[in-house]
Specification:
104 residues, alpha+beta, Translation Initiation Factor IF3, 4 helices, 21% strand, RNA-binding, YhbY-like_sf, RNA-binding protein YhbY
């Protein structure tokens, strides 16, 4: 997990604003398979939103802690039951945000 400056987080939050959540967490909760799927999506997108359903037994703090322990994903922001996740792309062709974030 990389440490982001305030300026980098503001840029990522602004970039995430128009996005819709592409993953949701339900009553099955969090597990490594789910994290692997999120990492695969982030490898191509770098920035995604995840929502937590009303039936889930976890909250955004649980999500942030679980991701911190099981992956390199950075939680940029949490709003209500939605979290914004960031992971720089390893492949150059998918690296759209990370070069800009690195310059900030």
């Amino acid at each position: 997990m990389q440490k982001l400056s305030g300026k980098q987080k503001r840029y990522l939050r602004a970039s995430a604003n128009p996005l819709s959540p592409i993953f949701s967490i339900g009553k099955n909760g969090l597990n490594q398979q789910w994290v692997n799927e999120v990492v695969a999506a982030l490898a191509k997108r770098e920035l995604i939103k995840v929502s937590i359903q009303q039936t889930a037994e976890v909250d955004v703090k649980d999500l942030a802690e679980f991701l911190h322990q099981h992956s390199e994903i950075t939680v940029v922001q949490t709003i209500g039951r939605t979290a914004v996740l960031y992971l720089p792309a390893k492949e150059e062709k998918y690296a759209k945000l990370s070069p800009l974030v690195a310059k900030l």
